[in-house]
Write a structure and sequence with these properties.
By secondary structure, the chain is of the alpha+beta class. Helix content is about 45%, strand content about 10%. One of its GO terms (biological process) is L-glutamine catabolic process.
Amino acid sequence: MEYQKILDQIQEELNYRDVFGKVASYIPELARVDPKKFGMHLYSTDAQQSSFGDSSEKLSIQSISKVFTLTMAMKILGEDLWDRVDVEPSGDPFNSLTQLEHEKGIPRNPFINSGALVICDILVSNLKDPKAELLEFVRKITGNPEIDYDYTVAASEKSTGYRNYALVNYMKALGNIKNDVEPIVDFYFHQCSLAMSCEELAKAFMLYANRGKLLETGERIISKTKNKRINALMQTCGFYDEAGEFSFEVGLPGKSGVGGGIVAIHPGQYSVAVWSPLLNPKGNSELGMAALERFTTLTGFSIF
């Protein structure tokens, strides 16, 4: 497959001027991002790489980080994890309090905010230094020791993160949070502030495209079964309450973030990351979703 030709065609066809999305404004630092940014990077299992645009520029990965923390929590708790968080699509906004109340403090899945905060609670309980160990994990799977948090973004998130505090407090009242609130939300704001490029994200998600093993060394990071479950959750829950639309249009497991990034994988084939900060009303990159729809259309195959 001549991936570079396909990416070049996508870059030629799509433009930020053709979409109506807006940058995330509820996090002050994200509101300052240049809306014209657009990049894409593909990493295949035969080590072929293709890219265009702003693919090497750092973006705030936001909820894409939830795949990394879920992976770490699954390695620690295994199947016991699902006693505290469910695996169903939400169908509601990613920061819904109403759904959490209805379901008595058990989040629908680990990719909505409440579910990710339960995952943070688990990691705070089981790791000596969760922020340092998350960095160590991401640096290992990318092979890049320089990946770091954007501390300005983390502080910006904390300054407006009242709803996330509310989610943790409500779950604590119902017995599904074990630690003090502050270290949980502090870890959560930092994980969302991870700064990575499309190139680095595509490399990181090769772990999930390669059945839980690092492509370059063959080291197994997670079991095939756990990898299968993570990919299934990305397919059904990776795009907030627009997961069905992404499956319908693109047909790949993936995860989005309100920084405008999207990563998707084809198991056994490739990982592909795209970035455009302009978000649709559901909080997903409008241009990014269009680019990935064109990608699976032009390549002629998805997982279906």
